[in-house]
Protein backbone atom coordinates (compact mmCIF):
# COMPACT_ATOMS: atom_id res chain seq x y z
CA UNK A 1 0.00 0.00 0.00
CA UNK A 2 1.12 3.50 -0.78
CA UNK A 3 0.14 6.57 1.24
CA UNK A 4 -0.32 9.64 -0.94
CA UNK A 5 -0.50 12.98 0.85
CA UNK A 6 -0.65 15.68 -1.80
CA UNK A 7 -3.08 18.61 -2.22
CA UNK A 8 -3.41 18.12 -6.00
CA UNK A 9 -5.21 15.59 -8.17
CA UNK A 10 -4.32 11.91 -8.32
CA UNK A 11 -4.69 9.68 -11.37
CA UNK A 12 -5.47 6.03 -10.62
CA UNK A 13 -5.98 2.99 -12.83
CA UNK A 14 -7.72 -0.30 -12.12
CA UNK A 15 -8.79 -3.62 -13.53
CA UNK A 16 -12.42 -2.90 -14.37
CA UNK A 17 -14.57 0.10 -13.61
CA UNK A 18 -13.99 2.19 -10.48
CA UNK A 19 -16.90 2.70 -8.11
CA UNK A 20 -16.93 5.35 -5.39
CA UNK A 21 -18.42 4.21 -2.08
CA UNK A 22 -19.08 6.69 0.75
CA UNK A 23 -19.14 4.96 4.13
CA UNK A 24 -20.08 5.99 7.63
CA UNK A 25 -19.72 2.96 9.87
CA UNK A 26 -18.33 -0.45 8.93
CA UNK A 27 -17.64 -1.79 5.44
CA UNK A 28 -15.96 -5.06 4.41
CA UNK A 29 -14.33 -5.48 0.99
CA UNK A 30 -12.30 -8.20 -0.75
CA UNK A 31 -8.66 -7.08 -0.90
CA UNK A 32 -8.61 -7.65 -4.66
CA UNK A 33 -11.29 -5.01 -5.25
CA UNK A 34 -9.80 -2.13 -3.24
CA UNK A 35 -8.16 0.66 -5.24
CA UNK A 36 -7.92 3.53 -2.74
CA UNK A 37 -9.50 5.11 0.33
CA UNK A 38 -9.71 8.53 1.89
CA UNK A 39 -10.84 9.96 5.20
CA UNK A 40 -10.65 9.02 8.82
CA UNK A 41 -10.92 5.27 8.30
CA UNK A 42 -9.48 2.62 10.56
CA UNK A 43 -8.79 -0.68 8.80
CA UNK A 44 -7.84 -4.26 9.55
CA UNK A 45 -7.16 -7.35 7.45
CA UNK A 46 -8.86 -10.63 8.30
CA UNK A 47 -9.70 -14.00 6.80
CA UNK A 48 -12.94 -14.36 4.89
CA UNK A 49 -14.50 -17.63 5.91
CA UNK A 50 -12.64 -20.88 6.31
CA UNK A 51 -10.45 -23.04 4.11
CA UNK A 52 -13.26 -23.59 1.58
CA UNK A 53 -13.63 -19.84 0.92
CA UNK A 54 -9.87 -19.53 0.57
CA UNK A 55 -9.66 -22.42 -1.90
CA UNK A 56 -12.60 -21.23 -4.02
CA UNK A 57 -11.73 -17.53 -4.10
CA UNK A 58 -7.99 -17.97 -4.34
CA UNK A 59 -7.27 -15.47 -1.59
CA UNK A 60 -9.57 -15.49 1.41
CA UNK A 61 -8.62 -12.06 2.80
CA UNK A 62 -10.82 -9.02 3.31
CA UNK A 63 -10.27 -5.49 4.57
CA UNK A 64 -12.67 -4.21 7.18
CA UNK A 65 -12.99 -0.42 7.33
CA UNK A 66 -14.55 1.53 10.16
CA UNK A 67 -15.25 5.24 10.34
CA UNK A 68 -16.28 7.93 7.89
CA UNK A 69 -14.68 8.30 4.48
CA UNK A 70 -14.62 7.19 0.86
CA UNK A 71 -13.53 3.96 -0.80
CA UNK A 72 -12.81 3.43 -4.49
CA UNK A 73 -13.35 -0.16 -5.62
CA UNK A 74 -12.57 -1.89 -8.91
CA UNK A 75 -15.18 -4.18 -10.44
CA UNK A 76 -12.72 -6.83 -11.71
CA UNK A 77 -15.27 -8.36 -14.06
CA UNK A 78 -13.40 -11.41 -15.35
CA UNK A 79 -16.23 -12.45 -17.69
CA UNK A 80 -16.12 -9.11 -19.51
CA UNK A 81 -12.36 -9.28 -19.83
CA UNK A 82 -12.51 -12.79 -21.31
CA UNK A 83 -15.27 -11.71 -23.71
CA UNK A 84 -13.08 -8.88 -24.92
CA UNK A 85 -9.90 -10.97 -25.25
CA UNK A 86 -11.44 -14.06 -26.91
CA UNK A 87 -12.10 -12.40 -30.33
CA UNK A 88 -8.51 -11.09 -30.34
CA UNK A 89 -7.02 -14.59 -30.15
CA UNK A 90 -5.98 -16.41 -33.36
Strand order of the largest sheet: 1-3-2
How much of the sequence lies in strands comes to over 45%
Oligomer: single chain
H/E series, N to C? Answer: EEHEH
Evaluate the radius of gyration.
16 Å
Class per helix and strand makeup: alpha+beta
- Whole-number average pLDDT? 84
Unreliable parts: none
User: What best-fitting shape do the alpha-carbon axes yield?
Assistant: flat
Helix content percent band:
10-25%
SS elements, strand count: 3
Compute the separation of the termini in Å.
Answer: 38 Å
Work out the count of structural domains: 1
Number of helices: 2
Biggest sheet overview? 3 strands, antiparallel
Q: How would you portray this structure in words?
A:
There is one protein chain. The chain has 90 residues and is an alpha+beta fold. The protein has one domain (18-88). Helix content is 17%, strand content 46%. It has two helices and three strands. It has a three-stranded antiparallel beta sheet with strand order 1-3-2, with no helix packed on it. The radius of gyration is 16 Å and the shape is flat. The N and C termini lie far apart (38 Å). The mean pLDDT is 84.
Sum up the structure in keywords:
alpha+beta, 90 residues, 2 helices, three-stranded antiparallel sheet
Write a compact overview of the structure shown.
The chain is α+β, with helices and mostly antiparallel strands and 90 residues long.
Fold topology:
Blueprint: E1 18-30, E2 34-47, H1 51-57, E3 61-74, H2 78-85
Antiparallel strand pairs: 1-3, 2-3
